[in-house]
Amino acid sequence: MNNKMAARLNTYSGAVRGGQHMHFDAAFTHRGYLLNCEPARAGDGSWQPYVVISRSSDGELVANRFFPTELRFSDEAAAIAHARDWAVRWIDASSMTI
Question: What domain of life does the native source organism fall in (predicted)?
Fold first, then answer.
């Protein structure tokens, strides 16, 4: 990951999560895109999935997805998996190529 991309992801993550930075295990790549799938912690302790998709080549934001507020998981890993699965399907369905 280049410095520009890392800075951009930290900015997105911080803006959405109040200054927290992306967990290493919440970042994935797929077909030339970087998926930041770090979930948000809800007040009740559950996890809300969220994903930021950017191009791996230059860090340019492609899309972000806020899931419905009622979609919550008791396990952080499950929220990450949900966001990742959605992002992979979205990229594959959009037929985007780098």
Answer: Bacteria
